[in-house]
Design a protein that fits this description.
This protein is α+β, with helices and mostly antiparallel strands. It is 27% helix and 20% strand. The radius of gyration is 19 Å and the shape is elongated. It starts with 12 loop residues before the first strand and ends with a helix. About 21% of the residues have low confidence.
Length: 143
């Protein structure tokens, strides 16, 4: 399978800290922390440390399309094995609370199969998983 070229991320850069005149209540002492800047396919992205008031949620996630089980395992283990946590259906969260979807291309193809029964079997199998097992998805797809 060929991976679509949809997730190029530029190198990280750190912006200078805000001016000394930046003030925050004691409860938000991290408000004046530096920001993280990246670019994804030429689109600038900016991460701000908003403290406990502004937390991450699954409303925003990174999607990584993987070509095989080894690549799926590599991304999953890098995130979960470095302070992250597993979720369901190929989702996990990194140690900073950002959500990731580690999605094998085989899963996407299976759940969009033109054979509705095969797609449902693959979908039902996925719903029982945390990290996606491509062999189990393919077995369910075939029936």
């Amino acid at each position: 399978m060929k991976r679509p070229n949809t997730h190029q991320v530029g190198p990280p850069t750190t912006a200078p800290p805000p001016p000394d005149s930046c003030t925050a209540p004691a409860s938000r002492s991290t408000w004046c922390s530096p920001v993280l800047q990246r670019s994804a396919r030429g689109i600038p992205c900016l991460g701000l440390n908003g403290g406990a008031t502004f937390t991450h949620s699954e409303a925003f996630s990174f999607l990584v399309s993987t070509v095989d089980q080894a690549e799926t395992d590599r991304y999953w283990n890098a995130i979960v094995g470095n302070g992250g946590e597993e979720s369901q259906c190929g989702w996990c969260r990194d140690k900073w609370g950002l959500s990731w979807q580690i999605t094998p291309i085989a899963l996407t193809e299976a759940v969009t199969d033109t054979d509705a029964a095969a797609a449902k079997r693959a979908f039902d199998a996925m719903m029982k998983m945390r990290k996606i097992d491509i062999a189990a998805i393919e077995k369910a797809r075939k029936g």
